[in-house]
TrEMBL record:
Pfam family, one: PAS_4
Domain of life according to the entry: Archaea
Species per Swiss-Prot/TrEMBL record: Natronoarchaeum philippinense
Gene3D superfamilies named in the record: PAS domain
UniProt keyword terms in alphabetical order: Transcription, Transcription regulation
SMART domains in UniProt: PAS
Domain PAS: 97-147
Name of the protein: PAS domain S-box-containing protein
SUPFAM superfamilies: PYP-like sensor domain (PAS domain) (SSF55785), Winged helix' DNA-binding domain (SSF46785)
InterPro entries: BAT_GAF/HTH-assoc, HTH_bacterioopsin, PAS, PAS-like_dom_sf, PAS_4, Tscrpt_reg_IclR_N, WH_DNA-bd_sf
């Protein structure tokens, strides 16, 4: 039997001594038989009570040890109703400390394991059982070597660890079901004689997220490089696109790609204008697509619907991951055509091979080399100013100078409009139109 709550176990054991003659000795075996405990549990609890001063003990013969409850002195009898004795306070402190340790051990999110000198686990917490994929009774007695990769030199690693002060690092751990997890560990030898502590944290998802984030940054850098390249290779590709094809064919409509955005979870949000179909029909089609993670109607009018969606895989995503940019995607009567651009320094054949490997029915219809015109700063400014009205420029300048774009805002819209002696709604309309033209210029690269 496990002793469970240490305070309760101690009380049960002391009750055995209190039921006997004062000073009568007992062996650990007698206590174990009396309470139905394992011998090791009785030994451990008796030792704790002796160390706290509740019991006294001595060795009898070569190996046998006995424990007894010392009889109360006259002084202790006189103070039986007074404050707790120093001995009882020490015992209570010991029980509280044990309870605190056990709570931390059991409730910790990280795996905590204690091994003996043979590297076999003698104590593990629930988080360790979850990480290793085994119940406690099956994890106890095992070594880390049983969860390591083939070729791992456990004997050498264990010997080096035992003579060290501490060890930490990363380790590929293979769970009982064969799944590999990447863990970081911190280990300390001899926290007690013959007891060695390991604290392990599963960082598999964090590591994968970090690697994916780095890949996203790499793709973004290449994507931006393509957008600003003076010379690009333009490809026109006919490809089966599960979303575009289905919409245009099933609804007998036209689909026009507007752009894409990378969400924080790595998914690509695509925006497409559907012309000639109601928003209700568009949503019905999207609800039937198992390859779509997310979709919503952003805007709708009598003739068109702006749709936002994220798919598990798509031709646009494959092109972006290869470093290209999607200039346009058009779909009509179930036929989808993509115009993609990539920098002249990219490996064109590698991109085509990568794309056709995922979409074997895709056909490269045309390939062109384009030299983009160089726009000077002066030309850029003049073209931008020409596209804005005087009212829009003044609204934009007032917002900038008054700190409207700062965080937190230095001025609110109402205060700026009042200073300009115009209605707030009028000022906001001019500002929104100016912002729209600026953003449209930036993302659509309006021609000079």
């Amino acid at each position: 039997m496990d002793k469970g709550d240490p305070s309760r176990a101690g009380e049960e054991l002391v009750a055995v001594f209190e039921g006997a003659e004062p000073g009568e000795p007992h062996t650990a075996r007698e206590i174990a038989d009396e309470l139905g405990w394992e011998r090791s549990t009785a030994d451990e609890t008796l030792q704790e009570l002796a160390e706290s001063g509740v019991l006294e003990t001595k060795l009898v013969g070569d190996r046998e040890r006995v424990w007894w409850l010392p009889p109360p002195t006259d002084h202790s009898r006189a103070d039986v109703s007074a404050e707790p004795t120093e001995r009882s306070r020490e015992y209570q402190d010991l029980v509280a400390s044990e309870q605190q340790y056990r709570a931390v051990f059991e409730e910790a999110f990280d795996a905590i394991l204690i091994a003996d000198d043979e590297a076999r686990y003698v104590e593990v917490n629930p988080a360790a059982c979850e990480l290793f994929g085994l119940p406690r009774e099956e994890l106890l007695g095992r070594t880390i070597a049983e969860f390591a990769a083939d070729g791992y030199d456990f004997e050498e690693a264990w010997q080096e660890f035992q003579i060290s002060e501490a060890d930490r690092g990363l380790f590929p751990l293979f769970r009982a079901d064969g799944e590999q997890r990447i863990v970081e560990f911190a280990a300390t030898p001899n926290i007690l004689p013959g007891r060695h502590l390991s604290v392990i944290r599963d960082i598999t998802e964090r590591r994968e997220a970090t690697e994916e984030l780095e890949q996203q940054r790499k793709r973004t850098r290449q994507y931006q490089k393509t957008l600003t390249a003076d010379t690009v290779i333009q490809l026109e590709i006919e490809v089966d696109d599960a979303v575009f094809d289905r919409l245009s064919e099933h609804l007998d409509c036209k689909c026009e790609f507007e752009g894409l955005v990378t969400a924080s979870n790595g998914r690509l949000l695509q925006y497409v204008t559907v012309v000639g179909a109601s928003s209700e029909d568009v949503l019905d089609v999207m609800a039937d697509r198992s390859e779509v993670y997310h979709y919503r109607v952003v805007f709708e009018s009598d003739s068109s619907t702006l749709l936002e969606f994220a798919a598990k895989r798509s031709p646009a995503q494959t092109l972006v991951e290869a470093g290209a940019s999607c200039r346009s995607i058009r779909s009509e009567r179930g036929v989808t055509t993509i115009v993609a651009e990539l920098g002249a320094d990219l490996d064109l054949q590698r991109l085509i091979n990568q794309f056709t490997a995922e979409y074997p029915d895709a056909t490269v219809v045309a390939k062109r080399r384009l030299d983009r015109p160089i726009v000077t700063t002066r030309q850029y400014r003049e073209t931008l100013v020409d596209s804005l009205t005087d009212r829009q420029i003044e609204a934009l300048r007032a917002a900038y100078l008054a700190g409207y774009f700062e965080w937190p805002r230095s001025s609110q819209a109402e205060r700026i409009a009042s200073s300009m002696d115009i209605a707030t709604s009028t000022w906001l309309r001019h500002l929104r139109l100016a912002e729209d033209k600026l953003v449209r210029w930036f993302f659509e690269e309006l021609e000079v």
